[in-house]
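Input sequence (73 aa), recorded before submission:
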Amino acid sequence: MTNTTLPSTQVQLDTIQTYLRAHKLDGWLLYDFRGTNPIALHVAGLQRSGTRRWFLWIPQAGRPVWLIHAIEG
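Predicted structure, token format:
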């Protein structure tokens, strides 16, 4: 299941994507499982993590893509 909405601010997304382009990176893949990655939670704008693994791909341009388990969606 995917969702392209990033709860954090557009300014933060713009800053991340500018950094990715400046450093010639294709994107940033964030991952969390049960709150073990506080950086991913913060960047994704989440207060808490679900019970299943989730991934968030932030490309250097365009909309972020979520990959989450159907139970969490």
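Checked by second reader. The chain has a mean pLDDT of 84.
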